[in-house]
C-alpha cells in the first residue's frame, strides 16, 4: 500500500525517524503532576498541621505525611534528570546536522534564566533560574567520557551529603564573606533548591541520554527492572535503618537527617522512573498513561501555568471563602480539577501546535527567528489501483488531477 501526499512523494507507514521518545514525555508529565501536588497541597495540608494535631486534622495530617514522604524532592529530581537528558538529545541532533551548539545553548540558558526570573515574581520557589545557572555545567562536561560523567554525578551527590553536615558553619562563612542578605540567599539556593542534587541529576541525565536507555530494547528493559528492585530495596532499607537507629522519634532534628532525606529522595525518584517506564511498556497501560504525554511536551508552559493556577486559587479562597485554612476536601478537589484542566488544555494545544507557547517563544528567541508554530496536516490518501481513496487524513480533498497523476505513477511502478 502506498501513501500519496500533495507533493507526490511516497512514504512508508512505519517510518519513525521523527518519533519522539514518548516515555520521556510521559515521565515529564508525571513529574509535573507530582510537582503540582507538592506545591498545591503543601501550604494547606502540611504547614497548617504543624503543631495542631487533633481529631479534625487527621485527614490533613495523613495527606501532609504522604506528601512529605512520597513527593517532596522526588519529582524535581526527575525533572532535573530529564533536563540533562534533553541536553544530550539536543547535542546529538546538532552534531548530526553539523550545526553550532555551545554558543547557542548558552544563549538558550540566558533566556531560560530570564524566564525563570520573571516567573519568580509570581512564584518564589521557581526552579528555572537555577537550571539556567547549573546548565552551564553540562556545557563544560559535554565531551567527557561516560565513566567520568558517572563519577562527576556521584561526586556531586556525595558533596551534597557532606554539605548537609556543615550547614551552620557554611551559613556563617557566606554571611561573613558576602553579607547577611546575600549570604542567606546563597544558602537558600543551595539548600532549598538542592543545588548539588540538581547538578548531579543533570550530569546523570546526560549520561543516560548517551546510553539511549529510554529507547525500547531488551537490554534497557532489563536495566530498568534492576533499577526498580534496587531502588525499592534501598528505600525500604533506609526507612528501617532510620527508625531502628532511633533517628525518627522525639521530633528533634539529627545531624543525619539531611543525608537520610537526600538518599530517600534519590531512591524514590529512581523507583518512580523505573516504575513508569516498566508500566509504559505494557500496551494496555500505555494507552491509559498517554494523557501525560502532551503535558510533558509543553513542560515549561505547564510549569508556569501551575503557578498561575495556585495564585488564582489563593485569590479565590481569600476573596470568596474568607477562611485562612480551607477544608481538605476543597483543597483536594481543587487540585484534581485544576490539574485536569491543565491536562485538557495541553492536549488541545499540542493537537494543533508543535510547541507549547513558552517553548515556542524560547525556541524563537534562541534562533532569533520566528519558528513555525501551527501543525501542518498533510493531505494524505491510501490509494488502490482504481484510484479510489480508501482512507484519508486530509481536511480537504486532493484534486482529481493529483490523484490521477499518482495513480499513473503507481501503474508505471
From TrEMBL:
Residue ranges annotated for the DUF418 domain, each copy included = 208-369
Q: Which domain of life is it from?
A: Bacteria
- Which regions span the lipid bilayer? 26-46, 61-85, 105-122, 128-144, 156-178, 190-208, 228-247, 259-280, 300-317, 329-350
Keyword annotations for this protein? Membrane, Transmembrane, Transmembrane helix
Q: Which InterPro entries match?
A: Bact_Transport_Assoc, DUF418
Which PANTHER family does the protein's record reference?
INNER MEMBRANE PROTEIN (PTHR30590:SF2)
Know the name of this protein?
Answer: DUF418 domain-containing protein
Q: Which organism is it from?
A: Hymenobacter caeli
Amino acid at each position: 500500500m502506498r501513501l500519496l501526499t500533495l507533493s507526490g512523494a511516497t512514504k512508508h507507514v512505519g517510518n519513525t525517524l521523527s518519533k519522539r521518545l514518548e516515555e520521556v514525555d510521559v515521565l515529564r508529565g508525571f513529574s509535573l503532576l507530582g510537582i503540582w501536588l507538592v506545591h498545591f497541597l503543601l501550604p494547606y495540608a502540611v504547614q497548617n498541621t504543624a503543631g495542631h494535631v487533633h481529631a479534625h486534622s487527621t485527614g490533613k495530617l495523613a495527606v501532609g505525611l504522604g506528601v512529605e514522604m512520597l513527593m517532596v524532592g522526588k519529582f524535581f529530581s526527575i525533572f532535573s534528570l530529564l533536563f540533562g537528558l534533553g541536553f544530550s538529545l539536543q547535542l546529538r541532533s546538532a552534531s548530526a546536522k553539523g550545526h553550532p551548539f555551545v554558543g547557542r545553548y548558552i544563549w538558550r540558558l540566558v533566556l531560560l534564566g530570564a524566564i525563570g526570573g520573571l516567573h519568580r515574581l509570581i512564584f518564589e520557589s521557581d526552579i528555572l533560574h537555577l537550571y539556567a545557572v547549573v546548565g552551564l555545567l553540562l556545557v563544560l562536561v559535554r565531551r567527557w567520557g561516560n565513566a567520568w560523567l558517572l563519577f562527576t554525578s556521584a561526586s556531586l551527590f556525595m558533596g551534597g551529603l557532606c554539605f548537609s553536615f556543615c550547614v551552620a558553619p557554611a551559613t556563617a562563612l557566606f554571611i561573613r564573606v558576602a553579607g547577611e542578605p546575600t549570604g542567606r540567599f546563597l544558602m537558600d539556593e543551595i539548600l532549598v533548591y538542592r543545588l548539588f542534587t540538581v547538578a548531579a541529576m543533570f550530569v546523570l541525565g546526560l549520561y543516560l541520554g548517551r546510553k539511549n536507555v529510554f529507547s525500547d530494547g531488551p537490554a534497557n528493559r532489563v536495566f530498568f527492572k534492576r533499577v526498580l528492585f534496587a531502588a525499592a530495596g534501598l528505600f525500604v532499607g533506609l526507612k528501617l535503618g532510620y527508625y531502628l537507629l532511633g533517628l525518627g522519634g522525639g521530633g528533634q532534628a539529627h545531624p543525619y537527617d539531611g543525608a537520610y532525606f537526600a538518599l530517600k529522595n534519590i531512591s524514590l525518584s529512581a523507583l518512580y522512573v523505573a516504575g513508569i517506564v516498566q508500566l509504559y511498556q505494557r500496551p494496555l497501560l500505555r494507552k491509559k498513561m498517554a494523557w501525560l504525554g502532551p503535558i510533558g511536551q509543553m513542560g515549561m508552559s505547564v510549569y508556569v501555568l501551575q503557578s498561575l493556577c495556585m495564585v488564582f486559587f489563593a485569590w479565590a479562597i481569600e476573596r470568596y471563602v474568607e477562611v485562612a485554612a480551607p477544608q481538605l476536601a476543597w483543597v483536594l478537589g481543587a487540585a484534581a480539577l485544576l490539574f485536569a484542566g491543565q491536562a485538557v488544555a495541553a492536549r488541545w494545544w499540542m493537537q494543533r501546535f508543535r510547541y507549547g507557547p513558552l517553548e515556542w517563544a524560547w525556541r524563537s528567541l534562541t534562533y532569533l527567528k520566528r519558528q513555525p508554530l501551527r501543525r501542518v496536516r498533510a493531505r494524505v490518501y491510501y490509494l488502490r489501483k482504481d484510484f479510489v481513496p480508501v482512507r484519508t487524513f486530509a481536511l480537504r480533498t486532493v484534486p482529481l488531477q493529483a490523484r490521477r497523476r499518482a495513480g499513473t505513477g503507481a501503474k508505471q511502478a
